[in-house]
């Protein structure tokens, strides 16, 4: 398999640096130890690796030149935006080029009548909405890192966010891409016109984690800002009540713009940090955002309130003004840093499950939390069943990170068992390669490798990420022997 | 209700062994779509039945041969719908055909296309392996998105066995409004409305009259209708069904029918013929005797593409030809899924 990176013993780094310097302006090839350090990890800082060299590209021609050199020298390339990813997708390779696209941050065009924006990959997610605001338009996907994360990274990861319950993931909100293949060929995929001819490469490239091409331009769909946005908070004395209220809201035919869940540990951490006015004693809270025109939200608030009451909500409030809305959201948005304050380290998981399995999965996580002696705070997108258990730990305690990874691995495998998936929005990256072996059988993984080959036969784009080799899966399987049988590759699906 | 996965897999294995191409057949309602494909028929309509429908999960999984009408009736019982409103184009329309053809109906610009609702696909690839991509949950980024890749691929990458789709609640109220205006004004007005928070869910323009549909809570639809004015069309539902199914008077002639996809706000295009606009202006039907090359060139000049949807010469390029780099990727992807060239040879492009 091509995607295990092979070190190149005889590589002349100095010669490579000069070759790169010949195609990039001065100061945009970083190769000294201290220059490389800022690039050694992305948002998953437990994984660190310094690249051989960092290239800072400013335009399509420069990306193309770096790609050509990578082919010539047979050196892998890892593309990087803002480095906020949470699965190690932008983790550098020891013998690879780290290609930063952060300088490519021009907004090329905003077309208010066609409701699109054409942007370079390094444009920050939030910057698009800011630029479109004067037309009453915005870009819907809003990952929690939207102040910093780039749209190119969002495309690579198919990022979600709080509002994707109603407005979809990145794949539902982009219309066109310009992509350079490993060989430096420019593909123009889709655009302002719907339903591009041929295969849906737009969908295939979205979420492909930098393995199939390097995105150099994106056309996104802009939506009109909703007339009215309402935020409700409901507190519950049991996690089960909160979970079943979630199911009933959906069953009632209401699709909230966002529906977020926090358990007691998360509530306390967020409240201490952000003073959002959350009830500290509640077992769980739900934050529900409803949007639409005034008449629509008024009807929905009433119905949602009734559902909360029916599920024994101990408190239901609807934010009275803009300030209170912001405050209620501030607690949720600060949940991760808030948890970071109460624990030296935390590990964020990202499985998705069918909504009706929420109560049993949360119960099982709580049981394992005791078994491993590792506290867990739960903050997640309840509306679409996308869990984010945060496992609290201290990396300085020997063996603790390993225990966390084992615990996390079991959570992801449980997600697969109940009919869900190992990653809802953070991507596989470097982190969840082993769990990919649980989610997919040998035939699917082989098909993924063939797709990769179709775009990148030499295997130079972000090799070793996102799709495990069959060899790796066999080894991982061997570590999980049940009843004397290897679960892999004999078992196709489970 | 029957699961023919194994029988179909055996049939594919046989075709691989004998190196004979197969032409996948569902209900036959969209046999006109695309180019004629070579190969012995592989009937899949018998592989049918709903496997899992969980209304509170907004998700349904069914076998490819399940009639669309059966799925829609089941969803309607639970107040839900397929939000992409797939055209049937005949009584036999199946789920597999709707997904393989990738055609979406009136609600598409506001709710999304078929591919936006595909959560997972089980399929047989050209090596005779049964593969399962995606799943039954909305948020899922594990592995390449092969299920969306197969959506609209016209069966050229494999046999779709089962599909999981996201469903949505049906709007509680809908209303259709009509406005007399010419095409140029209609396109601009419609796109202005699209850029403001109105509960739009469909639009059509027949050359003289712009029709729009509003969907949502009764009070919301009422308020928007008051704001927009226009004439209330009492049989709105029938209008949208006729447009979707091409039963509308515009589609009744035998002239070659083109489908142009363009940036929605593109002003009327300078191609002589009869036009019918849909969606937010992004989908435009054209009856013309103009040469394919001219139609395509003008569509492309406006950032769009043109498909010879019905009639005309179907042995040439029916879909908009791909530039060389894109054509190369298509060929390699076809080989990656179907190395022996078994499935629906030529249906999409002559060399796929």
Molecular structure report:
- The complex is a heterodimer of chains A (494) and B (352).
- With 494 residues, chain A is α+β, with helices and mostly antiparallel strands.
- Chain A is built from 17 helices and 18 strands.
- In chain A, the strands form 4 sheets. In chain A, strands 15-12-14-13-17-18-16 form a 7-stranded antiparallel beta sheet, sandwiched between helices.
- In chain A, helix 1 packs antiparallel against helix 3 (60-73) and helix 13 (358-372) runs antiparallel to helix 14.
- The relative contact order of chain A is 0.12.
- Residues 1-5 and 478-494 of chain A have low confidence and may be disordered.
- Chain B has helices at 5-18, 68-77, 95-101, 108-111, 114-117, 146-150, 183-194, 218-228, 236-244, 292-301, 324-337; strands spanning 22-25, 40-43, 50-54, 59-63, 80-81, 118-124, 130-134, 159-166, 168-169, 173-180, 200-205, 209-216, 231-233, 257-261, 274-278, 283-287, 305-310.
- The interface between A and B is large, with 99 and 89 residues.
Task: Explain the layout of strands and helices.
The complex is a heterodimer of chains A (494) and B (352).
Chain A: H1 13-23, E1 29-30, H2 33-36, E2 53-56, H3 60-73, E3 77-80, E4 97-100, E5 107-111, E6 116-119, H4 125-132, E7 137-138, H5 151-157, H6 164-167, E8 174-180, E9 186-190, H7 201-205, E10 214-221, E11 223-224, E12 228-236, H8 239-251, E13 258-263, H9 264-274, E14 284-292, H10 294-310, E15 313-318, H11 322-333, H12 335-342, E16 345-348, H13 358-372, E17 376-381, E18 389-393, H14 400-417, H15 433-439, H16 442-455, H17 470-479
Parallel strand pairs in A: 2-4, 3-4
Antiparallel strand pairs in A: 1-2, 5-6, 6-10, 7-11, 8-9, 8-10, 12-14, 12-15, 13-14, 13-17, 16-18, 17-18
Helix pairs in contact in A: 1-3, 8-10, 9-11, 9-12, 13-14, 14-15, 15-17
Chain B: H1 5-18, E1 22-25, E2 40-43, E3 50-54, E4 59-63, H2 68-77, E5 80-81, H3 95-101, H4 108-111, H5 114-117, E6 118-124, E7 130-134, H6 146-150, E8 159-166, E9 168-169, E10 173-180, H7 183-194, E11 200-205, E12 209-216, H8 218-228, E13 231-233, H9 236-244, E14 257-261, E15 274-278, E16 283-287, H10 292-301, E17 305-310, H11 324-337
Parallel strand pairs in B: 1-2
Antiparallel strand pairs in B: 3-4, 4-8, 5-9, 6-7, 6-8, 10-12, 10-13, 11-12, 11-15, 14-16, 14-17, 15-16
């Amino acid at each position: 398999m091509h995607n295990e990176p092979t070190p190149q013993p005889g590589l002349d780094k100095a010669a490579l640096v000069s070759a790169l310097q010949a195609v990039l302006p001065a100061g945009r090839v970083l190769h000294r130890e201290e220059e490389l350090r800022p690039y050694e990890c992305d948002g998953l800082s437990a994984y660190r690796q310094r690249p051989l060299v960092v290239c800072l590209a400013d335009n399509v021609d420069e990306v193309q030149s770096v790609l050509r050199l990578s082919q010539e020298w047979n050196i892998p390339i890892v593309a990087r935006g803002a480095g906020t990813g949470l699965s190690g997708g932008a983790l550098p390779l020891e013998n690879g080029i780290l290609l930063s696209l952060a300088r490519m941050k021009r907004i090329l065009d905003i077309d208010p009548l066609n409701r699109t924006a054409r942007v370079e990959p390094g444009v920050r997610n939030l910057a698009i909405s800011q630029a479109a605001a004067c037309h009453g338009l915005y870009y819907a996907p809003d990952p929690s890192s939207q102040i910093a994360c780039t749209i190119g990274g969002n495309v690579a990861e198919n990022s979600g966010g709080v509002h994707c319950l109603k407005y979809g993931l990145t794949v539902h909100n982009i219309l066109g891409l310009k992509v350079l293949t490993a060989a430096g060929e420019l593909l123009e995929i889709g655009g302002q016109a719907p339903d591009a001819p041929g295969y849906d490469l737009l969908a295939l490239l979205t979420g492909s984690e930098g393995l199939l091409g390097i995105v150099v331009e994106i056309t996104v769909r802009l939506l009109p800002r909703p007339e009215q946005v309402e935020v409700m908070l409901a507190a519950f004395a049991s996690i089960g009540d909160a979970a079943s209220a979630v199911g009933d809201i959906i069953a009632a035919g209401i699709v909230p713009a966002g529906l977020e869940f926090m358990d007691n540990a998360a509530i306390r951490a967020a409240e201490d940090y952000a003073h959002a006015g959350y009830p500290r004693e509640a077992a769980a809270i739900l934050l529900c955002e409803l949007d639409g025109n005034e008449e629509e939200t008024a009807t929905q608030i009433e119905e949602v309130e009734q559902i909360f009451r029916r599920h024994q909500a101990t408190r239901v409030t609807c934010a009275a003004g803009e300030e209170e809305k912001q405050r209620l959201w501030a607690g949720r948005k600060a949940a991760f840093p808030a948890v970071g304050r109460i624990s030296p380290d935390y590990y964020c998981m990202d499985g998705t499950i069918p909504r009706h399995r929420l109560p049993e999965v949360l119960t099982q996580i709580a049981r394992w939390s005791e078994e491993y002696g590792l506290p867990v705070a739960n903050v997640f997108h309840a509306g679409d069943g996308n869990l984010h258990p945060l496992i609290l730990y201290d990396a300085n305690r020997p063996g603790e990170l390993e225990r966390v990874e084992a615990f996390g691995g079991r959570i992801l495998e449980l997600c697969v068992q109940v009919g869900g998936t190992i990653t809802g929005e953070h991507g596989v990256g470097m982190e969840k390669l082993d769990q990919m072996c649980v989610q997919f059988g040998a035939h699917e993984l082989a098909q993924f490798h063939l797709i990769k080959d179709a775009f990148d036969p030499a295997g130079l784009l972000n090799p070793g990420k996102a799709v495990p080799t069959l060899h790796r899966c066999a080894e991982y399987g061997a570590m999980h022997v049940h009843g004397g049988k290897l679960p892999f590759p004999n078992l196709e699906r489970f | 209700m029957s699961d023919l996965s194994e029988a179909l897999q055996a049939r594919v294995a046989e075709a691989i062994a004998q190196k004979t191409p197969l032409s996948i057949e569902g209900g036959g309602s969209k046999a006109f779509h695309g180019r004629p494909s070579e190969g012995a028929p592989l009937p899949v309509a018998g592989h049918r039945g709903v496997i899992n429908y969980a209304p509170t999960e907004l998700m349904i999984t069914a076998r490819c041969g399940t009639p669309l009408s059966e799925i829609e009736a089941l969803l309607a019982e639970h107040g839900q719908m397929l939000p992409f409103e797939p055209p049937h184009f005949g009584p036999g329309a199946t789920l597999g055909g709707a997904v393989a053809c990738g055609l979406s109906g009136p609600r598409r610009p506001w709710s999304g296309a078929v591919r936006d609702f595909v959560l997972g696909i089980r399929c047989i690839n050209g090596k005779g392996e049964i593969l399962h991509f995606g799943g039954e949950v909305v948020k899922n980024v594990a592995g390449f998105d092969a299920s969306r890749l197969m959506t609209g691929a016209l069966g050229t990458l494999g046999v779709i066995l089962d599909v999981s789709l996201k469903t949505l609640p049906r709007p509680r109220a809908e209303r259709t409004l009509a406005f007399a205006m010419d095409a140029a004004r209609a396109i601009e007005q419609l796109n202005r409305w699209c850029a403001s928070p109105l509960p739009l869910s469909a639009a059509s323009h027949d050359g003289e009259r712009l029709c729009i549909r509003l969907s949502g809570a009764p009070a919301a639809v009422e308020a928007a209708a008051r704001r927009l004015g226009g004439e209330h069309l009492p049989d709105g539902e029938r209008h949208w069904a006729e447009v979707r199914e091409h039963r509308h008077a515009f589609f009744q002639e035998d002239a070659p029918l083109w489908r142009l996809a363009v940036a929605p706000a593109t002003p009327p295009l300078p191609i002589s013929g009869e036009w019918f606009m849909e969606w937010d202006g992004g989908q435009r039907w054209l009856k013309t005797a103009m040469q394919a090359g001219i139609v395509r060139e003008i569509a492309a000049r406006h950032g769009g593409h043109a498909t010879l949807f019905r009639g005309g010469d179907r042995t040439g390029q029916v879909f908009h030809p791909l530039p060389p780099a894109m054509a190369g990727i298509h060929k390699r992807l076809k080989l990656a899924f179907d190395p022996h060239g078994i499935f629906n040879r030529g249906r999409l492009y002559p060399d796929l």
